[in-house]
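Lab notebook page, bench 4
Experiment: in silico fold of construct C2
Operator: M.H.
Input chain length: 233 residues
Purpose: comparison with the prior construct
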Amino acid sequence: MSQQIGKAYYGLPWEYDKGEEVAVMFQTDRRVVEQLLPPVLSPPEGPAMGVVMAAHHRRSTFGPYVGVYLGVVALHAGRTVLHRLTGMKTSFSGAAGGREAWGMPLDVGDAGMEWSGDVLNIIARRHGNDFARLAVRLERRTEQPASWFTDMTSVVERQPWDQGEKRKLLLGTGVRPADPKDMIFWKGSSVLKLVGGDPGDDWSVLPVQEVIETRFSFGGQSALTGPHVLEEF
């Protein structure tokens, strides 16, 4: 019996048939970013940047679902990474798997993506409270753009029974990317509001000063192949 109640989600790789995906880079407060990053990461020179990503997976190891994620651009050992701050998925198994295998800061919520005329409305909501709202309009098709970062990171703490001297791990994300020949890419414009949902929640800590770039893609098949340890601290 391969499917068991209460099982862990370590059966990698995790496969995805990709639908609509949106990535928005925005300028934010550098002082806030410095406070949020673990000591092994630092913000790059220049304005601090945050990123909101939203994805509709038409099919996946965890079934179809929508996910919305928030992170900041950082440096690790001279490489540009996206450090995850928070996120929510409509799939419990997807959220649980991300937390177990990667330490991703995920929760289950009412994330949604819906077209209204020529605008794609994206929302991250839980218990009737809005945490993030994003409205996207497509402008023109493009070639595949260069990636903003070389890895995506998260922090996990060692289990209490693990006697390693350093208690935290910075993890990177193994990815098998989709073939760009199976995808379409658009440049767009957007309005982003990180409104927060609960007092002290982790969606409201980053102010949105200015939207810098909006990207849209559709299609392709990708996979997450496993986490890897970048540094102990």
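Observations: The radius of gyration is 17 Å. The chain has one domain: 14-152+178-222.
Next step: discuss at group meeting.
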